[in-house]
Amino acid sequence: MSIVKYVAVVMVITVLGSARAQPEAKFNCTTTNTTCRALIDYRNPNGTTLSYIQTLFDVKQLIDILGANNLPSNTTGNYSVGPNKAMKVPFPCKCNNGTGVSDHVPVYTIKAGDTLDNIATTIFAGLVKYPQIQEANNISDANTILVGDKLWIPLPCSCDEVGGVSVVHYGHLVELGNSVEGIAEEYGTTQQILLTLNGITDPKSLQAGQLLDVPLKACSSNVKNNSLDYPFLVANATYIYTANNCIKCMCDSTNNFKLECEASSEFKPTNWSICPSTQCSSNVFIGNITAKDSCNQTICDYAGYTSNNISTILETHSTCAAAPNGSAPNGSLPNGSGPSSGATKSTLQGWVWSNLFSVIYFILFSIYLV
Ligand SMILES: *[C@@H]1O[C@H](CO)[C@@H](O)[C@H](O)[C@H]1NC(C)=O
Ligand SMILES: *[C@@H]1O[C@H](CO)[C@@H](O)[C@H](O)[C@H]1NC(C)=O
Ligand SMILES: *[C@@H]1O[C@H](CO)[C@@H](O)[C@H](O)[C@H]1NC(C)=O
Ligand SMILES: *[C@@H]1O[C@H](CO)[C@@H](O)[C@H](O)[C@H]1NC(C)=O
Ligand SMILES: *[C@@H]1O[C@H](CO)[C@@H](O)[C@H](O)[C@H]1NC(C)=O
Ligand SMILES: *[C@@H]1O[C@H](CO)[C@@H](O)[C@H](O)[C@H]1NC(C)=O
Ligand SMILES: *[C@@H]1O[C@H](CO)[C@@H](O)[C@H](O)[C@H]1NC(C)=O
Ligand SMILES: *[C@@H]1O[C@H](CO)[C@@H](O)[C@H](O)[C@H]1NC(C)=O
Ligand SMILES: *[C@@H]1O[C@H](CO)[C@@H](O)[C@H](O)[C@H]1NC(C)=O
Ligand SMILES: *[C@@H]1O[C@H](CO)[C@@H](O)[C@H](O)[C@H]1NC(C)=O
Ligand SMILES: *[C@@H]1O[C@H](CO)[C@@H](O)[C@H](O)[C@H]1NC(C)=O
Ligand SMILES: *[C@@H]1O[C@H](CO)[C@@H](O)[C@H](O)[C@H]1NC(C)=O
């Protein structure tokens, strides 16, 4: 126990009668010895700012939150987030005895008037239940917590592949009117995968406020297994700054789920005074595409980083072979305007679809009642 400045003896209110009362979320996680990136929804009923979310969840850089939500990289921390608007929060995940939990973040400092239950339900929006905080922090008596003490909030997450495919696990908060099928449609997965992953037998049992493990497809990349950011998983419709902020990588479904990276000087590098070379060969840098002929193109791609350099790889691939889904246009340029416009449109389509399903469910249910 740390030095006690103030002692707050507080009653833990165990009345869980509200609509938020959901069983604690536990995501299966069996991948050993790795830390991976995960995402979780955070909603504040009063509205908030990105800076508040960054501080609350101990996110290292604001850009990590911007990338997770595909917001423009020049968005500032005072950007306001509307009441109950869900934002995706990125955090490191580690498997522990079959269950995934955030890797010793976020750390919350107890304030006067806090109870474990109110920290779980209100401050962390019900993403954890107070017994999980109690267990993670080895607190023997939940009724006695000390102002100024630090608590690790163990957020649910996973690092497991799904169906042999690399994914980023996203703890999605179910909203009123959502259906499993609608959520699957919106995030590019299937109802069956969601049901299996979350141990749900009856899709109709889905409730608002429930935290669903939603696997987001990650883009394929050339990052080598000895790179400091391996496994480099960037989820569909997100971007990440890596290699101490010297490289920006985006994952976009319109590029056939192939990661697009480019050198960036938008942010001051961390750890390095200047960014090391991102050159593949003379005058060819990460992100440059050189057209060889009408069909084959060569791209200088990001292949990872170490404490003192950035690796590159020259990759040649054919753009003539029909894309599997037949819809992707040939060779979209990574130096172009980025994924935001197309992705926004698709999100909107997903939203319309998910609500369409809700409407159909509602109609069917009404018929059933009659
Ligand atoms: C995990 O890593 C530790 C040290 O890094 C190593 O001793 C241990 O054998 C590894 N376990 C597995 C299952 O790979
Ligand atoms: C929202 O505002 C109410 C009323 O001011 C307050 O009691 C509550 O703690 C706030 N919730 C959050 C998550 O800040
Ligand atoms: C952010 O950058 C875009 C161009 O990429 C620009 O149109 C916009 O005004 C910028 N926003 C701010 C707040 O600087
Ligand atoms: C938001 O933050 C930026 C820089 O951090 C500042 O220039 C701007 O004035 C702030 N806007 C508001 C409304 O506080
Ligand atoms: C691991 O989980 C099992 C059951 O889920 C439990 O019985 C066991 O005590 C746990 N081990 C540790 C070290 O937490
Ligand atoms: C948890 O706390 C109890 C007593 O408060 C102590 O005996 C035990 O060693 C602690 N366990 C851990 C893992 O810190
Ligand atoms: C990828 O993201 C876009 C935009 O959010 C979405 O429309 C699409 O369904 C997603 N696809 C997959 C396979 O995740
Ligand atoms: C999680 O793992 C446990 C133990 O391996 C297993 O019994 C359970 O079915 C799994 N749950 C899901 C949803 O896969
Ligand atoms: C890392 O990748 C190399 C090939 O690039 C492979 O030979 C090696 O086995 C891999 N190591 C691990 C630990 O996966
Ligand atoms: C960056 O520096 C910090 C401390 O200065 C160190 O803990 C961390 O491992 C370094 N990261 C990399 C990727 O070199
Ligand atoms: C190659 O990439 C560099 C660095 O990203 C960029 O400045 C340059 O304009 C690119 N050249 C071509 C031909 O795209
Ligand atoms: C593209 O490259 C492949 C080998 O990588 C070659 O077999 C093929 O003929 C090339 N296509 C064209 C149109 O040059």
What is this entry, summarized?
The protein has 370 residues and is α+β, with helices and mostly antiparallel strands. The chain contains 7 helices and 20 strands.
Please give a structural write-up.
This protein has helices spanning 50-56, 62-68, 116-123, 130-136, 180-186, 191-197, 340-369, and strands at residues 8-9, 35-42, 48-49, 80-81, 87-96, 99-102, 107-109, 144-145, 150-152, 156-157, 167-173, 211-217, 238-242, 247-251, 260-263, 279-281, 284-285, 289-291, 296-305, 310-318. By secondary structure, the chain is α+β, with helices and mostly antiparallel strands. The longest helix is centred in the C-terminal third of the chain and has 30 residues, at 340-369. α3 (116-123) packs across α4, α5 crosses α6 (191-197) and α5 (180-186) runs antiparallel to α7. Mean pLDDT is 83; it is low at 1-20 and 323-354. It is 20% helix and 25% strand. The protein binds 2-acetamido-2-deoxy-beta-D-glucopyranose (12 copies). Pfam families: LysM (PF01476). This is LysM domain-containing protein. InterPro entries: LysM, LysM_dom_sf.
